[in-house]
Write a structure and sequence with these properties.
InterPro entries: ArsR-like_HTH, AsnC-type_HTH_dom, Dimeric_a/b-barrel, Tscrpt_reg_AsnC-like, Tscrpt_reg_AsnC/Lrp_C, WH-like_DNA-bd_sf, WH_DNA-bd_sf. The protein has 152 residues and is of the alpha+beta class. 39% of the residues lie in helices and 18% in strands.
Length: 152
């Protein structure tokens, strides 16, 4: 989108806050007609700015209260290992995010599990699929800020 403006930013802010809002509500907030609001949202979807509309779920209420960050170092950096790693982490339930990193750390994995036994099951699934040089884990004691909204 070449003409991304303040109205688009306002629309995105509102949608990031609550994507279930009606077009009427959104159009009132941003000062556009319902149809103009809908067209801008469609343009942002078509441009790939809006990539999905999702429902956020309280992890504790569905039995996944423990968040873990796994720091992974690999002994291999070849394309075959990277491909197998990507396939493995995409198919293991509980793994939410995976990032390839710079520096000493090769990968950072964010996961949700029920408890330490759940973490051990996730860990065992991962190491059964491919070799890693080192995995260390840090467990979240308190969520101070956890947001999906990007600053606009």
């Amino acid at each position: 989108m070449l003409n991304f403006d303040d109205i688009d930013r306002s629309l995105l802010s509102e949608l990031q806050r609550d994507a279930s809002q009606s077009l009427d509500s959104l159009s009132d907030v941003v000062g556009l007609s319902r149809n103009a609001c809908w067209r801008r949202i469609r343009l942002m979807e078509d441009a790939g700015i809006i990539t999905a509309r999702v429902t956020l779920v309280d992890p504790a209420k569905i039995g996944l209260p423990l968040m873990v960050f796994m720091q992974i170092r690999t002994g291999s950096h070849d394309p075959d290992w990277q491909s197998r790693f990507a396939t493995a982490v995409k198919t293991i339930p509980g793994i939410l995010s995976v990032y390839r990193m710079t520096g000493d750390l090769d990968y950072l994995v964010r996961a949700r599990v029920a408890d330490m036994a759940g973490y051990d099951r996730l860990y065992q699934q991962l190491i059964a699929r491919l070799p890693v040089a080192d995995i260390s884990a840090s467990f979240v004691m308190e969520d101070i800020k956890d947001s999906t909204a990007l600053p606009l």
